[in-house]
Amino acid sequence: MEFLSFSVFVAAVIIFFTISLISLSLVYENDDGRRIKLPPGSFGWPVIGETMEFLFSKPEKFVGDRMNKYSPDIFKTKILGEKTAVICGSNGHKFLFSNDQKLFTAFRPHPTQKLFRSYQTPAPAPSATDQNPRNNNDSEESKVIRKPGFLKPEALKKCLGKMDSISQQLLQNHWGENGKKIVEAYPLAKTVTLTLSCRFFLGIDNPERISRLVKHFDDVTLGLHSVTLNVPGTAFYRARKAAAAVRKELLHVIKEKKEVMSASGPMQDILSHMIVSSGSHVTENEIADKIMGLVVAGYSTVATVIVFLMKYVGERPDIYDKIRTEQMEIGESKKEGELLEWEDMQKMKYSWNVIRETMRLNPPLQGTFREVLTDFTYAGYTVPKGWKVYWTVSTTNMNPTYFKEPEKFDPSRFDEGEGQTPYTYLPFGGGPRTCPGKEYARLAILAFVHNVVKKYKWEVLFPDEKVIGDMMPTPEKGLPIRLHHL
């Protein structure tokens, strides 16, 4: 009897402490001593939190499971070493993007900070409107992109011909020789993307130099979504080595640029303007890191869209026929050797819908982080200053409320108005931090599509090919296809 009473006492103590811990996890005392109601959720394991689930499960599963368990609007977690509130759905997107630079500022996760070393250098003294200078949107690289207008439509019009000719040349070099029948689509998608980035961002035209960089940029991109464990064999270790190799190559490019510019050479790329705008107070290493960040941002995203577009179109002859009809009409309206112009791109409406649907199912951007500047309340819960906020496209892209039969590949849904509700379809983010390269990406992909369907028809050899990686989805075999030369 005494033993039974003792057991009941122990059970009661355990229940009491469990309830207390749960209560403490839901209530937080901020800097002013006020008790605030935190979002529901779990911080997961000590130290690592829920990072492993975040990195190695599909984003829609990680977020969807927690939306179902805790709240469809907001939940808390701990990922990549940070206490994080995940804001969900179209209303969450609207709240986040409408309050950017008011409640939030940009935040680069720790893997990014460690791989791009210059992002950790001391920042200048803050101005009256700059609450967090190290993450301020008006970073030097951001100013360089926007002020010369490199990625604005009026500037990109001048680049279209070069995009067209580069796509033609690379298709001929990689797939046109000896009438190749079986090829892998993914390596070409990466080569096309990196060649365009190197040409317009760095002013590099050397194919050998570019080919040396492809593997390095792959490793750096994978390292951005990894645990920062710098041990041989880990993704982060490979990324550190790759970033060092890319930095070394870029330092050579910067020195070459300076020599050309000292002789009054033209400044026709972003790197040249970055060198000038940086002046003497920014080191060459910092410039190299900043331009590397820009190239990485545009490299994997565009390559991912191209390779999955090749997959979906290769599996759907009906969609291929519609794209080819549209592109052949444009091609037949042009003289021999005449390159694409701005007006041609506006006629590619169906092709663009296919690209949009590809980005819905395989987003080039899964989501981004923000840092909380001041306590804020959303959906009845308060998120403390200093926490991070994460938003992800998966809370709307695969939601049947906005897209009927969301698992189905159906480009016509965009003609029917699906995804037109504000803040439901955001492949390039939204608000003041909308990706400045979205128009560049659109034109680069369309130029490739124009040329590939004019020259080839193809079949996907392994329709059920495994896709590895969730933050950077990749066909495991490189998407082998059977080419039919036209």
Automatic annotation (TrEMBL):
The protein's name in its UniProt record: Cytochrome p450 11411
TM regions (residue ranges): 6-28, 291-313
EC number: 1.14.14.1
Annotated compartments: Membrane
Membrane topology: Single-pass membrane protein
SUPFAM superfamilies, per database record: Cytochrome P450
Keywords carried by this UniProt record: Heme, Iron, Membrane, Metal-binding, Monooxygenase, Oxidoreductase, Transmembrane, Transmembrane helix
Name of encoding gene: CYP11411
CC terms in the record's Gene Ontology section: membrane
Keyword Transmembrane: yes
InterPro entries: Cyt_P450, Cyt_P450_CS, Cyt_P450_E_grp-I, Cyt_P450_sf
